[in-house]
Amino acid sequence: MKFFVAVLAALLLSACSAFKVVDLDSTGHFPTQTTAKVVLSKPVDLDSRKALILVPPSDFEKGLVGKIGYFDEVMTFEDLEKKVVAANMGDRIPSVRDRIGINNAAKHLKPFLWLKFERKGTGNDRYARYTLIDAKTMEDYFAAETHLDYVWTGVNDQHNWYPMFNALIDYIRENSKTYRR
Fold this sequence. Notes:
The protein is α/β, with parallel strands linked by helices. It is built from 5 helices and 6 strands; from the N terminus they run H-E-E-H-E-H-H-E-E-E-H. Mean pLDDT is 88; it is low at 3-16.
C-alpha cells in the first residue's frame, strides 16, 4: 500500500508544473512540442482593437499576454474594476465579472478584447479553451483548446497553456499588419 501511495504521489507531482511566464523563443513562440486545436478563427482587423485586452485573473496569463508584446494594455478583472472606480463609473458598470458587466465596460470606458478561459467536457474528456471576444459586440473571433490529460502528459504550461498562447500568436500574426515578432 505504501508503494502505491508513493507511486501515485510521484505521478501527481510530475503531472503538475509550476506555471512560469517565459520569454518567447527565436520563432516568436512559447517553448513547447505540442500544438493547440484551433476551433475558431475569424478574420478581423486586430490592429484597431489592440488598445486593451482583458485576461483571466492570474499573473501567469497576464504575464504570457504581456510577453506576446502586441496589446497596448493588459488587464485582469481586478485591474478593470480599479479603472471603473477611478473613472467614477460604478453606477453604470456595477460589475465586470459577467458578460453584461464586461459589455458595459467596453461601451462606457473604451472598446477592448476579452480573452476568456474556460474548461469544457466531463470525465476524462476535458479541455481547456481560450476564446478571444470583442467585449463591445460579444462576438467570438478566435478559440483554441487543448486536452486536459491528468494521467499521461499532465496538465501544465508546456502541454496546455503555451500551445494555446502560440495559437493566439499565430492568429495575431494573421490578422495584424503591425505585429512584428
